[in-house]
Specification:
alpha/beta
């Protein structure tokens, strides 16, 4: 899962990055409004942590622009400006939650998990496809109850494809989701091919009733076999 942290305080931003990465999230950052605007409307994120007060603009204007463009964002506002008006304005503009600073990291992580459960519209934390189960809290995948021995990136790829079951995922989109936005500077995707090859082998050996299909020159999709 990929998270964008929009926060102008570099020390606090780094604290958030370390905490989120320890939970196995892919994290990108923006320290000002212009950078945040570019990333929000160019790349895709599962969740955005949004500070309102930025040095060159107001974070709420990002929500206004997203609404104008008809783009649905998953946003948790993080702001030291704890006023009722800001909270109401943010929620009315489409934010999903509002957490005033200071806060405990454990509460933020719980809010993110709660938001993701609502977004995925499922009661628990388990994604089921045929005999494959993916536990998004434990970061494990099992086939018929047996745990798959996956590397972190193999798990991340499997989860990303499984959450979009049957839909074609472009190589670029998959790379950005698992390795981060700046992977677009890479001139080849050999690292993806290697991970996909290993993942296919592990799924086949485990007897998984799912398979990764390739559309050459475009991307991948996970289907039930």
């Amino acid at each position: 899962m990929k998270i964008l942290v929009i926060e102008d305080n570099p020390d606090f931003r780094e604290l958030l990055v370390r905490a989120l990465e320890s939970e196995r999230y892919v994290v990108e950052t923006a320290g000002d409004y212009d950078t945040a605007s570019m990333k929000v409307f160019v790349y895709e994120y599962d969740c955005i942590l949004l500070d309102i007060m930025l040095p060159d603009g107001n974070g709420l204007d990002l929500l206004r622009e997203a609404d104008r463009r008809g783009i649905r964002l998953n946003v948790i506002i993080l702001s030291a400006k704890d006023s009722v008006d800001d909270k109401v304005a943010g929620l009315r503009l489409g934010a999903d939650d509002y957490l005033p600073k200071p806060f405990h990291i454990s509460e933020l992580l719980a809010r993110i998990q709660s938001l993701m459960r609502r977004v995925n519209n499922r009661a628990g934390n388990v994604l089921q496809l045929a005999n494959l189960s993916i536990d998004t809290m434990a970061h494990t995948a099992t086939v018929n109850g047996r745990t798959l021995d996956l590397s972190r990136k193999e798990y991340d790829i499997l989860l990303f494809l499984a959450s979009r079951k049957g839909h074609m995922v472009e190589k670029q989109t998959l790379a950005e989701a698992v390795w981060g936005d700046f992977i677009d500077q890479a001139d080849h995707f050999d690292f993806i091919y290697a991970h996909i090859k290993n993942l296919r082998k592990r799924l086949k050996e485990s007897g998984a009733a799912v398979e990764i299909k390739t559309t050459y020159g475009f991307g991948y999709r996970l289907i039930e076999s």
